[in-house]
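Tokens as discussed.
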């Protein structure tokens, strides 16, 4: 087996066929899919048991008690048969050449193993609403449609929903840090790059559609949770701040501190999320307000 595709899943019984159908459409065929059911409370277990024999590739469901994505990914990796591990999320749909590109990258780098990160895009056919359209404009700008892999020289971030590495590299690093509620992919990238000297690349050819259509308020709640985990991570590993001092700023100086504090108030969140007056603002102004509100939650995040 060349590739083991590992997908942690939680309460996505109604959506799991999307990624399975996308895997069926892959041009690269020598892979298995390990779906780790992380203690789902819906009927994910029953759905996976029903589907596991309905696809032309091996599907191995693993059912376990809920312990978070890091633990689920570690569990899947432990039971993987493939030489290459590819991690997707259960709300993702890899493009038909994605696995072929992941495979090509690693088979050409056997002497210098690396981690390959991939773009997570929004399907323009499914994007609805002003905030979602703003996310498309911003998040798609992060990636370059480059024909060759690009090394992340000054960055160790990983998109946990679309990464790959040799299983031997995964075992060397020690997998993901258990007990983390978020940013476990960032911690893995930092540890790999700065403790083990493993290079990180990104390659457009591996892109996936990420069906993560959160409302403005849902998105902010997600970022508050992530950055809460981030603070715990950086307290445990202060060297992260030393190496990336401008990436993580938790205590902004005045007047930014006052501005970001205001944008985290319930009044301002409700105005952007629900107010009819907000919808009347010009698009450029609405997008600017989205940007500041998300920045307040995502970087300048003093509790």
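Sequence:
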């Amino acid at each position: 087996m060349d590739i083991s595709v590992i997908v942690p899943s939680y309460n996505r019984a109604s959506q799991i066929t999307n990624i399975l159908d996308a895997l069926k459409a892959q041009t690269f065929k020598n892979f298995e899919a390990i779906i780790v059911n992380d203690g789902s409370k819906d009927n994910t277990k029953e759905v996976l048991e029903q589907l596991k024999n309905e696809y032309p590739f091996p599907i191995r469901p693993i059912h376990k008690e809920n312990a978070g994505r890091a633990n689920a990914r570690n569990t899947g990796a432990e039971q993987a048969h493939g030489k290459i591990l590819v991690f997707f999320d259960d709300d993702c749909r890899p493009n038909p050449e994605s696995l072929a590109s992941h495979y090509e990258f690693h088979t050409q780098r056997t002497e210098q193993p690396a981690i390959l990160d991939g773009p997570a895009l929004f399907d323009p056919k499914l994007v609805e609403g002003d905030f979602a359209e703003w996310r498309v404009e911003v998040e798609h700008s992060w990636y370059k449609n480059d024909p060759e892999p690009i090394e992340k020289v000054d960055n160790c971030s990983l998109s946990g929903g679309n990464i790959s590495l040799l299983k031997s590299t995964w075992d060397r690093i020690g997998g993901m840090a258990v007990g983390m509620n978020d940013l476990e992919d960032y911690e893995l990238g930092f540890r790999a790059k700065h403790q083990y000297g493993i290079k990180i690349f990104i390659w457009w050819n591996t892109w996936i559609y990420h069906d993560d259509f959160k409302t403005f308020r849902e998105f902010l709640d997600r970022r508050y949770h992530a950055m809460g985990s981030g603070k715990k991570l950086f307290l445990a590993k202060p060297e992260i701040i030393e190496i990336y001092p401008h990436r993580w700023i938790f205590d902004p100086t005045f007047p930014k501190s006052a501005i970001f504090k205001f944008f985290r108030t319930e009044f301002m969140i409700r105005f952007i999320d629900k107010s009819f007056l907000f919808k009347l603002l010009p698009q450029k102004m609405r997008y600017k307000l989205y940007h500041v509100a998300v920045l307040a939650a995502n970087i300048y995040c003093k509790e």
